[in-house]
Amino acid sequence: MILRDYNETYAHKMRDKEYLDAYLEACLQESDEAFYVGLRRAVQARENGFTWLAAQTGLGRESLYRALSAEGNPSFRTIRKILRALGADKSIVAHTVEMAEPQRRIVKRRETVEVASAN
After folding, report:
1. CA 96, chain centre distance (Å)
2. pTM of the model
3. What is the pLDDT along the chain (119 residues), one digit of tens a residue?
């Protein structure tokens, strides 16, 4: 069995806006880590990959590598810049905000409970 290289098989699809949007949406529903890796693959599908992305976003190439790793923890601003550079659908940005909101509420509730129990 001959295995194909990822770039040979899927890179050209990542340049199609509809495919990219569907792919990133599926990654986002799976997990944050899958989303970051999905963004990384979309960037690598572009000619000059991270060099191109750094020029488009004004962010450092090395920091983009770290941010889009499975262990990455990019800021919302970084994700938004990357999605804009890729030309991804703006609704994906809305989904990232929706996913972040429940986590913020939980943290606020915990802080409130801890403060209340300390008294």
Report:
1. 9
2. 0.70
3. 665 555 566 677 887 888 888 889 888 888 888 888 889 999 988 888 899 999 999 999 999 999 988 788 888 899 989 999 998 887 776 765 565 554 444 444 444 444 444 44
Residues whose CB is less than 8 angstroms from the CB of residue 68 and which lie 6 or more positions away in sequence, other chains included: 36, 37, 39, 40, 43, 74, 82
Identify residue 107 by its one-letter amino acid code. V
DSSP characters over the chain? -PPPPHHHHHHHHHTSHHHHHHHHHHHHHH-HHHHHHHHHHHHHTSTTHHHHHHHHH---HHHHHHHTSTT----HHHHHHHHHHHT--HHHHHHHHHHHHHHHHHHHHHHHHHHHHH-
